């Protein structure tokens, strides 16, 4: 097993890190304050090939391996947790749905534009009454001529109000439970009946709009169905497995940001005539923060490795996401503690890291649901 990055992976980390330090870090507080989708930064990231990192060059992707994609997402999230979600939802979720389950025409028409960053993608699975319990969804797609008429609504959709392509899940057979779910490509600009109800005012993850969507007699042609009818639930689970590796990456990136900030603060803040980093209590906090971030990063890379080898990685991706998201919250919490009272103010980014980290424990499978998944896999082994 290799524990070191290849030369190419190191170069990717350095390139993204440089961009993040120069362009994202100086803007992060403003993005957090104003909660606006940073379209100009997305254009810059598109120029660097960061909007289609893991997809082949034939679809205008960057053709990177999954380790490199995770490293890229970790770096972006180190700068801004909201930007990390924008890229993860666009790539790991919407992009993956098209890449894995789209036909050639669909890939050329929609995936290519996502990979170049000309268009933004979203993944619309959750509903008000169907979060962890996906098959409880009520959005329905009824056969209607050469297509389907969709009625219903989705909640919590990252990028939902700015997306050009939304991969949507709806019931095509309401009596068939999870086997009655199908997926479709929706084009908000073209499809009458697509309504953005509004966006959430959230604790953190600012800059990534989280939208409520409604579909009123929205007709979509059959050519926009992804795969066969009834395959949507399995497609969603497979997509979320890969997505969890990148939410682990987002978490590690936020944990690293919290650690770096706390370390430099501890080295310059003086109490009792010496830097607080001289106190063993502070040193031990920093030691634990670094150890946890490194362990989370290794779990993330192990899951990425299995994915790249085409081996089963359900348990490992769930463990990577579960552990990384929980330690990111813990590390960010200690970051605030090391800052004392200043950590509780907006004068320092420590509190933003805490708010951004919390989300990773909720989306793409809550920690409780992931523990269910891990336990099931463990007991079946
Ligand atoms: C900012 C944000 C962005 C999001 N982005 C997207 C997106 O882009 N696309 C999308 O489709 N969805 C998205 N989501 C939705 C997210 O995936 C759901 O919020 C999540 O799956 C939980 O669903 P819920 O909120 O309905 O909570 P519920 O499912 O109601 O869960 C409530 C509580 O009950 C627990 N619980 C539920 N079932 C079980 C069980 N079987 N065993 C043990 N505990 C259980 C949960 O762990 C949780 O603690 C986003 C959510 C947020 C907050």
From TrEMBL:
Cofactor(s) needed: FAD
Membrane spanning residue stretches: none
Name used for this protein in its record: Acyl-CoA dehydrogenase
One Pfam match: Acyl-CoA_dh_1
Key word Flavoprotein present: yes
Keyword Flavoprotein included in the entry's annotation: yes
InterPro entries: Acyl-CoA_DH_CS, Acyl-CoA_Oxase/DH_mid-dom, Acyl-CoA_Oxase/DH_mid-dom_sf, AcylCo_DH-like_C, AcylCo_DH/oxidase_C, AcylCoA_DH/ox_N, AcylCoA_DH/ox_N_sf, AcylCoA_DH/oxidase_NM_dom_sf
Single annotated GO MF: acyl-CoA dehydrogenase activity
UniProt entry keywords in alphabetical sequence: FAD, Flavoprotein, Oxidoreductase
Family statement drawn from the similarity comment of this UniProt entry: Belongs to the acyl-CoA dehydrogenase family.
Every Acyl-CoA oxidase/dehydrogenase middle domain range: 122-218
PANTHER family membership: ACYL-COA DEHYDROGENASE, ISOVALERYL-COA DEHYDROGENASE, MITOCHONDRIAL-RELATED
Lineage: Archaea, Methanobacteriati, Methanobacteriota, Stenosarchaea group, Halobacteria
Domain of life where this protein originates: Archaea
Residues covered by the Acyl-CoA dehydrogenase/oxidase N-terminal domain: 6-118
Domain called Acyl-CoA dehydrogenase/oxidase C-terminal: residue spans: 230-379
């Amino acid at each position: 097993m290799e524990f070191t990055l290849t030369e190419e992976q190191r170069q990717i980390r350095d390139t993204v890190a440089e961009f993040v330090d120069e362009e994202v870090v100086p803007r992060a507080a403003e993005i957090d304050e104003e909660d606006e989708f940073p379209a100009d930064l997305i254009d810059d990231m598109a120029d660097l090939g960061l909007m289609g990192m893991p997809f082949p060059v034939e679809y205008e992707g960057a053709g990177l391996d999954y380790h490199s994609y995770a490293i890229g997402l970790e770096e972006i999230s180190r700068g801004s947790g909201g930007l990390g979600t924008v890229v993860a939802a666009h790539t790991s979720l919407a992009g993956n749905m098209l890449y894995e389950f789209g036909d050639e025409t669909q890939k050329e028409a929609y995936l290519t534009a996502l990979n170049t960053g000309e268009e933004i993608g979203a993944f619309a699975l959750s509903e008000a009454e169907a979060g962890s319990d996906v098959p409880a969804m009520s959005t329905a797609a009824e056969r209607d001529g050469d297509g389907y008429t969709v009625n219903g609504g989705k909640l919590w959709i990252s990028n939902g109000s700015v997306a050009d392509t939304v991969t949507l899940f709806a019931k095509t057979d309401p009596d068939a439970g999870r086997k009655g779910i199908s997926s479709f490509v929706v084009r908000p600009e073209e499809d009458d009946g697509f309504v953005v109800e509004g966006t959430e005012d959230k604790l953190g993850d600012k800059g990534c709009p989280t939208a409520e969507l409604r579909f009123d007699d929205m007709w979509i042609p059959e050519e926009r169905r992804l795969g066969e009818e009834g395959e949507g639930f399995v497609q969603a689970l497979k997509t979320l497995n890969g997505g969890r590796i990148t939410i682990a990456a987002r978490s590690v990136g936020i944990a690293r940001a919290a650690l770096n900030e706390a370390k430099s603060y501890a080295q310059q803040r003086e109490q009792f005539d010496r830097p607080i980093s001289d106190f063993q209590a502070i040193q031990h906090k920093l030691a634990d923060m670094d150890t946890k971030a490194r362990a989370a990063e290794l779990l993330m890379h192990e899951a990425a490795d299995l994915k790249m080898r085409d081996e089963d990685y359900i348990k490992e991706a769930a463990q990577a996401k579960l552990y990384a998201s929980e330690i990111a919250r813990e590390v960010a919490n200690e970051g605030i503690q090391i800052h004392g009272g200043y950590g509780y103010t907006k004068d320092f980014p420590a509190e933003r890291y805490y708010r951004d980290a919390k989300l990773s424990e909720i989306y793409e499978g809550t920690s409780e649901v992931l523990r269910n998944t891990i336990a099931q896999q463990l007991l079946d082994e």
